[in-house]
Amino acid sequence: MEYRITLLPGDGIGPEIVSAAVRVLEKIGEIYGHTFHFTTCLMGGCAVDACGEPLPQSTVDACLAADSVLLGAVGGPKWDTLPAAQRPEKGLLGIRAAMGLYTNLRPARLYPALKHACPLRADIVEKGFDLMMVRELTGGIYFGERGRREGKYGPEAYDTEAYSVMEIERIARAAFEAARKRRGDVVSIDKANVLESSRLWRETVHRVAAEYPDVTVTDMLVDNAAMQLVRNPARFDVVVTSNMFGDILSDEASQISGSIGLLPSASLGATRRGLYEPIHGSAPDIAGQNIANPLATILSAAMMLRYAFDLGVEADAIEAAVDQALNDGCRTADIAADLPEGVSPLTCTGMTEAVLARLRA
Ligand code: NAD
């Protein structure tokens, strides 16, 4: 098969980690007989420098024309003082909107080889965990009506949490579909004891659940979910929640897995084409030194194969190669705490080559 992939390396370590993922995709192409056509475009600070805006129209066009998009990261101190419309982050929000991406998938798992990096209690770490957070990305309080007004006690500010049935239905379907590719269990998180929007959320999730009799669904209040994530993360398979609850809980989930350099993500919309990116930022403090951990981006490429192209076997092969590299003791500097004294961590290129060497059909 042939696939067209638009690359948005972005800023900081973005170009280093995206070229690592491209090497892995090319090797997958060789092993499994696929051809990936890559087009590289500007987005973020590099686009501001070259064209005066973070998201040139040519980049939007190339993303919409592609079968999928792989992003590194954008931003850095050089652009921090620019007006809001020219900030690199504006490019990220712009491309999500242009591609109609309303679902954010963030897997978080504990790699057995990296248990030492997990901040949880030993007995919880021993059980491990492997969960998928499904966060609604374009609705709720971040996009609702907001403002300032004169209230009962003087000046006040307000933000509005509003969800339509359509928005809840489509994110629920994304969660149930993801569960079918995993262990078939969904926990829907809300605050239905207080919020009307959560009561509609709960009703709607259960109505959609009837279309997925092979998947189990349980409700959990967000305050309890925040506790359960650190008390018993092994309890979760797929978690589905609103934009704001997902924003907070997905960061909690990423922290308990130990390293930011290992976590991939996918943003999906109505079409299968999506945007795949590591959850970390552009790490300007280590940019250009060839020491960044490329695994989150390599694993984002694996998610692309699974979700955009339905190439589950190929995605499994990448994930197995990453597991194997970690089990064999391969470490970049960010996960090197357990390296024996005198052993240097691998470079970004070195870790990429360790994964390439372990890729097999
Ligand atoms: P960051 O994720 O870039 O870095 C936080 C820390 O983690 C740093 O010490 C960094 O060196 C380290 N780190 C991150 N990724 C790593 C990797 N792959 N390997 C090894 N170490 C890694 O977060 P930050 O410092 O808060 O933000 C830096 C810039 O990135 C800012 O401009 C911010 O706006 C931007 N940002 C972009 C995105 C995105 O593009 N999606 C997301 C978050 C932050």
Folded structure, characterized:
It contains 12 helices and 12 strands. With 361 residues, it is α/β, with parallel strands linked by helices. The chain folds into 2 domains: 212 residues, 3-Layer(aba) Sandwich (Isopropylmalate Dehydrogenase), CATH 3.40.718; 138 residues, Isopropylmalate Dehydrogenase, CATH 3.40.718. Strands 2-1-3-12-11-4-5-10-8-9 form a 10-stranded mixed sheet, sandwiched between helices. Strands 6-7 form a two-stranded antiparallel ribbon. Helix 1 crosses helix 10, helix 6 packs across helix 7 and helix 10 runs antiparallel to helix 11. The mean pLDDT is 95. Nicotinamide-adenine-dinucleotide binds next to helix 4.
User: Which sequence of SSEs, written as H and E, runs from N to C?
Assistant: EHEHHEHEHEEEHEHEHEHEEHHH
In terms of quaternary structure, the protein is single chain
Question: Counting H and I runs of at least 4 residues, what is the number of helices?
Answer: 12
State Rg: 21 Å
Distance between the termini: 16 Å
Task: Return the CATH topology of the largest domain.
Answer: Isopropylmalate Dehydrogenase
How would you characterize the largest beta sheet?
A: 10 strands, mixed
What share of the residues lie within helices? Answer: 40-55%
Describe the strand arrangement of the main beta sheet, using strand numbers: 2-1-3-12-11-4-5-10-8-9
